[in-house]
Design goal:
Layout lengths: L1 H12 L7 E7 L5 E6 L5 E5 L3 E5 L6 E6 L12 E6 L3 H4 L1 E7 L2 H6 L16 E11 L2 E11 L7 E3 L6 E6 L5 E5 L17 H11 L22 E5 L21 H4 E4 L4 E6 L16 E5 L6 E6 L4 E2 L5 E2 L3 E2 L18 E4 L2 E6 L2 E4 L15 E6 L12 E5 L2 E8 L5 E11 L1 E6 L6 E7 L3 E9 L12 E3 L2 E2 L3 E6 L11 E6 L5 E2 L3 E6 L5 E3 L2 E6 L4 E5 L2 E3 L5 E5 L6 E3 L4 E5 L1 E4 L8 E10 L2 E8 L4 E5 L9 E10 L7 E9 L10 E3 L8 E3 L8 E8 L4 E8 H13 L4 E9 L2 E9 L1
Parallel strand pairs: 14-18, 32-40, 42-49
Antiparallel strand pairs: 1-30, 2-3, 3-4, 4-5, 6-7, 7-8, 8-9, 8-10, 11-12, 12-13, 13-14, 15-16, 16-17, 17-21, 19-20, 21-22, 22-23, 24-25, 25-26, 26-27, 28-29, 29-30, 31-33, 33-36, 34-35, 34-38, 37-40, 38-39, 41-44, 43-47, 45-46, 45-48, 48-49, 50-51, 52-53, 52-54, 54-55
């Protein structure tokens, strides 16, 4: 039902596009898709965050696996296989380059006799890698792996946080390989000190492992530090991973050092970037790979489009965000950028501006034409190189994850002068231009429901594709298995008559709207039926399905989490994640995935996930600020064909007692330097216990003692917190009360 609603919503959104633009679904049979690209012949390739690479049929979204390195890839929150690029001579040499975060368990113990793929060490320090694989016999040969960055634990790109890690891979005009990486740090100053929450995870462990050295233990300042690979754009030789002698900070005695590889620095999370066509020089010895347009994801204040035109530039993070915003939190003079380069475009909240000839102009001004826009995650984009979209050749297409796609027009001097909205209410994470016709394919991914490949193309008088709503049942069982195929609720936006083509996945088909087919056979096999719905003008939409013949899903007998329906918000709740499961084939591999999601109003946040048989999660108190909150635990258990149930269960934090139990008041709020509690006589001399959580439910600090002494340490701690929302829970005489406070 959710997929049907998604299709309906997409049909309404189509009308918002400029005349001639059509957006259609190509395929939705992906798991956390993060990017896509084309070879020069127009073959589409896509990759998933979990570590799988596919060749994709761009007409219907069907996919063929080329590589699966999911055992090696650290698939957690923002991390995973984020970047992929084909060699400029891919059709001749078959080289494919990958950028991903390495699973810590794999990194440390792969060659150990005690190595166990079931171990899952989430939120722990690891590294990012750049590797190369070779296409042989229509697959990427695992044995062909060549590591260019991260051949050992001390030579990788440090990953110390659960977000802003690996970015993209792009070839320069000169054949050099450009690599982007985030700062992988919590925005705070000073960096983590002994006694801080997560000090062991973020400092002691990576130092002991050799992931970072002591001089790199400087948090976000690593973006400014030339001995660190974090917060950078790198330029390396795609054959050996060395830096080039024409890089600004090259060290001839050590071509593999961080300095030798750095092309630009002072970036926070440069997730996607692209080469502007017809820039740069082919001769790699000249050190002119071209102009790169970078989507740098901001922190609290600005989103950016940066332009990197030459080597050695400093883009200001963490001291600066956007064109002029100064982050006062960061004031260590050691790393201060004296000549920080401002972004070309910035936005966040009510601010959307372009930087033109040294001056900022707001959206809607004569200098920067367009409608006001917002956003909070600058993904990146690409340049349109053809006349496929009339009037838009040579314009720059960019996306924001929260979520839009826009085109930016430029004057001959390279200054932006107009922004045009192409698509709203989408969540793009990667774009690619089809070299055969100039249409744009993009990944639309939003956890947990949206996993799509979509296509933007041009039509003079747009005829929108059919809205395909269909189901098949049953999807598994013993042969003979009779399956019902029903597309009767499909429709056409223009009201045209529709034709139907069911491919039952075995060479037999039907043109009926509703069909029935019986599968025969003794083997346990996976069959992939397909439906194509076509309107009178020849426009089609394709849906893909699975039928599991002679196969049965694992059965969940019971789960540990379903005993909980609510909990006292003051106390939080520790939930064991276990399940009793039976399967018809005892020898079959079973896979597990637990997800914990916090819902409030119209927002959902993935708190954590586990791919182990058993786990444990702490459901932290929520702010009790009048919104409706609930935690959802989703358990997906399946065999290697993806057959299996998903158990979803909601647990509600109960807030009624939060407002009345102790009768305390917190002031001031927002907090500048410290907080105070009042409402109980003699509170300073009472024995109190407290916890501080962030909005993701992570425990930041806890302590117990006489309140007069405790609050001094608490306020000293709060001074180090980055601006944002926090929750303070106070326990006194067997009762408790929670407060939501804002740190400025």
């Amino acid at each position: 039902m959710k997929k049907i609603l998604t299709l309906l919503l997409c049909s309404f959104a189509l009308a918002a596009q400029p005349p001639g633009f059509v957006d259609e679904l190509v395929g939705s049979n992906f798991d956390s898709p993060t990017g896509l690209t084309f070879d020069k012949n127009g073959q589409l390739y896509a990759w998933e965050k979990g570590g799988r690479v596919y060749a994709v049929d761009k007409s219907n979204g069907s996919k063929r696996i080329l590589l699966d390195i999911s055992e090696e890839v650290y698939d957690y929150l923002d991390h995973g296989l984020n970047g992929l690029v084909l060699d400029p001579n891919f059709l001749t040499n078959g080289y494919v380059y990958l950028l991903y975060t390495v699973d810590r368990n794999y990194l440390l113990f792969k060659d150990d006799v005690s190595y166990n793929t079931g171990n899952n060490d989430k939120f722990a320090a690891t590294i990012g890698r750049v590797t190369r694989y070779t296409l042989r016999d229509n697959v990427l040969d695992p044995a062909s792996q060549k590591i260019l960055i991260g051949e050992s634990i001390g030579t990788g790109i440090p990953v110390l946080m659960d977000n802003h890690g690996m970015g993209s891979l792009v070839f320069g005009a000169d054949g050099s390989l450009m690599v982007s990486s985030g700062d992988a740090a919590i925005a705070r100053d000073p960096p983590f000190q002994e006694g801080d929450a997560f000090y062991d995870l973020l400092v002691e462990r990576p130092l002991a492992d050799g992931i970072i050295t002591e001089d790199q233990n400087i948090g976000p300042y690593r973006s400014q530090y030339l001995n660190s690979l974090n917060g950078k754009m790198l330029r390396i030789n795609p054959e050996n991973g060395d830096g080039y002698a024409t890089n600004s900070f090259y060290e001839s005695e050590n071509p593999r050092s961080a300095r030798s590889r750095i092309w630009a620095y002072g970036l926070r999370n440069p997730f996607r970037f692209s080469l502007k066509p017809e820039t740069g020089k082919e001769d790699v010895s000249l050190g002119e790979p071209g102009s790169f347009f970078v989507g740098d994801v901001g922190w609290e204040n600005r989103e950016e489009i940066n332009v990197i035109e030459s080597g050695g530039g400093n883009y200001g993070w963490p001291y600066f965000e956007g064109i002029t915003y100064r982050n006062e939190l960061f004031n260590d003079p050691t790393y201060f950028p004296e000549n920080a380069i401002a972004p070309l475009v910035e936005w966040r909240g009510d601010i959307a501006q372009a930087f033109i000839d040294g001056e900022a102009f707001g959206i809607g001004s004569p200098e920067f034409i367009g409608e006001p826009f917002k956003g909070n995650s600058s993904i990146g984009g690409l340049w349109l190189t053809t006349d496929h979209f009339e009037g838009f050749k040579g314009t720059y297409l960019h996306g924001d994850y929260e979520g839009w796609i826009k085109l930016f027009k430029f004057v001959f001097k390279g200054n932006p002068f107009e922004v045009v909205s192409i698509k709203e209410d989408v969540h793009p994470v990667g774009f690619a231009e089809d070299p055969t016709d100039g249409s744009i394919f993009y990944m639309n991914f939003f956890f947990p429901e949206v996993h799509e490949v979509r296509r933007l193309y041009s039509e003079e008088n747009p005829n929108f594709p059919p809205e395909t709503e269909a189901f098949i049942e049953p999807i598994n069982g013993a042969a003979p298995l009779t399956v019902n195929f029903d597309a009767s609720t499909s429709s056409d936006p223009e009201g045209q008559p529709l034709s139907y083509h069911w491919d039952f996945g075995n060479g037999i088909s039907s043109s009926e709207k509703v069909a029935v087919f019986t599968y025969q056979g003794d083997d346990e096999i996976l069959i992939r039926p397909m439906l194509r719905v076509t309107d009178a003008a020849g426009k089609s939409t394709v849906r893909n399905f699975k039928v599991h013949l002679n196969n049965f899903p694992p059965e969940v007998i019971s789960t540990s989490f379903q005993q909980f329906t609510e909990f006292d918000n003051e106390k939080g709740l520790k939930v064991p994640l276990t399940a009793v499961i039976t399967n018809h084939n005892a020898a079959e591999d079973i896979f597990y995935e637990w997800s914990v999601i916090l819902h409030h109003e119209d927002h959902s946040h993935l708190i954590t996930s586990f791919k182990t048989k058993e786990a444990e999660v702490n459901l932290a108190p929520i702010p009790c600020d009048g919104q409706t909150y609930s935690y959802e635990i989703k358990f997906f258990v399946h065999d290697n064909t993806g057959l299996g149930p998903t158990i979803s269960h909601f647990i509600k934090p109960v807030c009624e007692a939060d407002r009345v139990v102790l009768g305390l008041e917190l002031s001031p709020n927002p907090v500048e330097q410290g907080i105070n509690l009042k409402g109980i006589d003699g509170l300073d001399d009472k024995h109190v216990r407290y916890h501080v959580f962030n909005t993701h439910g992570q425990l930041l600090r806890e302590s117990e003692g006489v309140w007069k002494g405790l609050k001094r340490g608490l306020n000293k701690e709060i001074e180090t917190y980055i601006p944002g929302v926090y929750i303070l829970r106070v326990m006194l005489d067997g009762s408790s009360q929670s407060f939501r406070f804002v740190k400025n």
